[in-house]
């Protein structure tokens, strides 16, 4: 069942759970996310970065949309870290039901202006918009990048940003980073800052850099408005580590039905564990038959 981010997360925040947003770069990851979501009876988000859509082309988006339509649980297709209005328009034309416009590295007023334009375009066709205020860290282990020096989200500025842009969700910076943390970096989320933002902002908040953080920090963050948690590196590492082992076992192997099944299963184990951690397992039932009819997108 394909739905919008706004509809998906309105239930999540009300019921105090978060929905995993999983970066997908091939059909194996699409299958892993949707099959696990159905097994866990959990909503889920298929998240595609511009790098990933460039790799797989627009035809991949059509495949994702069909897979989401046929899913037995609520699914969103989301553009991750769109940097330009052109990225947003491309995603909308490809049938995405949610887009992120990331102006976090711009001066504040330019971020506001860019986000306002993305919201104007997306809302005109019923697509949800995620903005970002503050910067996510960069561990140097992810193609998504980030900032070497994290600029933490100011709670008062967050309220102003939401009021001026009318975004549906807001990605905030409270200490996470994209990719895996090197040994000299110890992740610690600023929960007190999150509480202050949550007290001022009445839309779902988004946590980027969901991999490699302490479980207790993730659980605590969900109590204070985090409705969407991005996850990429842990899932991909499980997949490709298993694939490397399979290739060692079958050094001359080349058939996908031999090489990929165990890798997909490894990714599914991570997805399942994260859905339980985020609290979304079993929550698809909250999107009842009457609401599902309203959420379904043609």
TrEMBL record:
Its cofactor is Zn(2+). It holds the Pfam family F_bP_aldolase. CDD domains: TBP_aldolase_IIB. It comes from the Bacteria. SUPFAM superfamilies: Aldolase (SSF51569). This is Ketose-bisphosphate aldolase.
């Amino acid at each position: 069942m394909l739905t919008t981010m706004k509809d998906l997360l309105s239930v999540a925040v009300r019921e105090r759970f978060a929905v995993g947003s999983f970066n997908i770069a091939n059909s194996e990851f699409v299958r892993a996310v949707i099959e696990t979501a159905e097994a866990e009876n959990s909503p889920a988000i298929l998240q595609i970065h511009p790098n990933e859509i460039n790799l797989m082309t627009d035809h991949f988006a059509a495949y994702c949309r069909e897979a989401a339509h046929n899913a037995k649980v609520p699914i969103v297709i989301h553009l991750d870290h769109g940097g330009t209005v052109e990225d947003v328009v491309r995603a909308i034309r490809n049938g995405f039901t949610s887009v992120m416009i990331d102006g976090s590295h711009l001066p504040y007023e330019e971020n506001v202006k860019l986000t306002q334009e993305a919201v104007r375009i997306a809302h005109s066709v019923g697509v949800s918009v995620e903005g970002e205020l503050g910067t996510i860290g960069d561990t140097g282990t992810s193609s998504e990048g980030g900032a070497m020096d994290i600029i933490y989200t100011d709670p008062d500025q967050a309220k102003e940003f939401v009021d001026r842009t009318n975004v549906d969700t807001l990605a905030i910076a409270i200490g996470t980073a994209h990719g895996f943390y090197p040994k000299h970096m110890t992740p610690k989320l600023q929960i007190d800052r999150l509480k202050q933002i949550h007290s001022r902002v009445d839309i779902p908040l988004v946590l980027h850099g969901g991999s490699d953080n302490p479980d207790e920090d993730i659980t605590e963050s969900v109590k204070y408005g985090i409705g969407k948690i991005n996850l990429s590196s842990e899932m991909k590492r499980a997949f490709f580590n298993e694939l490397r082992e399979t290739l060692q076992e079958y050094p001359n192997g080349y058939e996908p039905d031999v090489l990929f099944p165990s890798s997909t299963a490894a990714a599914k184990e991570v997805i399942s564990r994260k859905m339980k951690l985020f609290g979304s397992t079993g929550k698809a039932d909250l999107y009842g038959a009457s609401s599902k009819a309203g959420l379904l997108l043609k």
